[in-house]
Amino acid sequence: MSYVLQTHRLSKRYGNKLAVENINMNIRQGDIYGFLGQNGAGKTTTLRMIMGLIRPTAGEIDWFGSSSTAGRNETMARIGGIIEYPGFYLNLSAADNLEVHRRLMGMGNKESIDEVLASVGLLGARNQRVKEYSLGMKQRLGIARSLLHHPEFLVLDEPTNGLDPAGIKEVRQLFLDLARQRGITFLISSHLLGEIEQLATRVGIVHGGRLLEEVDYEVLQRKSRRYLEIRVGDDKRAAYILEQRLGVSDYLVAAPGVLRLYEMLDEPSKVNRTLTGEGIAVEEIKRAGDSLEDYFLKLTGGDPLV
Ligand SMILES: Nc1ncnc2c1ncn2[C@@H]1O[C@H](COP(=O)(O)OP(=O)(O)OP(=O)(O)O)[C@@H](O)[C@H]1O
Ligand SMILES: [Mg+2]
């Protein structure tokens, strides 16, 4: 397993308040890691420590495998990010803004500017002043700037904050493209479950400064799936009938006489009719299980995410 980033008991104290407490995060190469938590959970504080903007009170950060002995500059050259708001010279064009940044940081060549603008879909607007950019365009320009030095890992703090649904969709697609086409690993924070749902391959849930759970997205989905719970006399025959008559395959026998059917959630009466029509005694049929949202609610002790 090749890790891009691991934190060990990472903590930050402000006065007598622990903003971040013993966070152990494991981000693998190729992950789109969704760092999910409500306002004040500790997302920005964690990302700022990771980016070296503030010093942890305790704990360690390992980059690119714990055996790495690379120095800080070498590591920073492989990562990029936007924490909080990206600032631009509003009276300069997008391309000029990137050129200023490129020279300031002493990196890349002039051609890389159009290359990164193209990769975020802003090549056509390269000469437009940033003043005239929409929020979504500015957000994409910020991402373009963070790509200038060809990082392998991008850290983005709530990158879709303030965007409208179309802008959110655009930026999400951009992340997916960058992940697929360039193999960039992402750490993206958000307080929106729906957003993480559509993007992340791995999810870390932070609450009250602690990482409550870190899990691959598929595992999370399975944990939180809804199903029809069907209580019958003969589970084997019932399962056979469901397969034959309704063509279902996604089910399991949870206990003797108890089937969990992960399909046909909207058609319990059809399931019931089919089974009783074949002489199966259906004692009970009901929807059960958690939605992803219920699952998070339980995890965070009932506090809604948003
Ligand atoms: N510089 C600071 N001084 C004192 N307390 C701070 C400081 N920065 C953050 N905190 C506190 O630490 C906790 C975590 O804040 P943080 O900004 O990391 O949360 P967040 O998850 O990014 O929230 P949001 O969704 O609102 O951006 C909060 O209680 C906050 O008040
Ligand atoms: Mg924040």
TrEMBL record:
Q: Which UniProt keywords apply?
A: ATP-binding, Nucleotide-binding, Transport
Its family remark reads: Belongs to the ABC transporter superfamily.
Spell out the protein name for this chain.
Bacitracin transport system ATP-binding protein
Q: Which InterPro entries is this protein grouped with? A: AAA+_ATPase, ABC_transporter-like_ATP-bd, ABC_transporter-like_CS, P-loop_NTPase
What Pfam families does its record include?
A: ABC_tran
Q: Magnesium: present as a keyword of the record?
A: no
**Annotated signal peptide:** none
Q: Which SMART domains match?
A: AAA
Extract the GO molecular function terms from the UniProt entry.
ATP binding
Please report the stretch or stretches of sequence annotated as the ABC transporter domain. Answer: 5-233
Q: Key word Transport present in the record?
A: yes
PROSITE patterns the record matches: ABC_TRANSPORTER_1 (PS00211), ABC_TRANSPORTER_2 (PS50893)
Q: CDD domains of this UniProt entry?
A: ABC_BcrA_bacitracin_resist
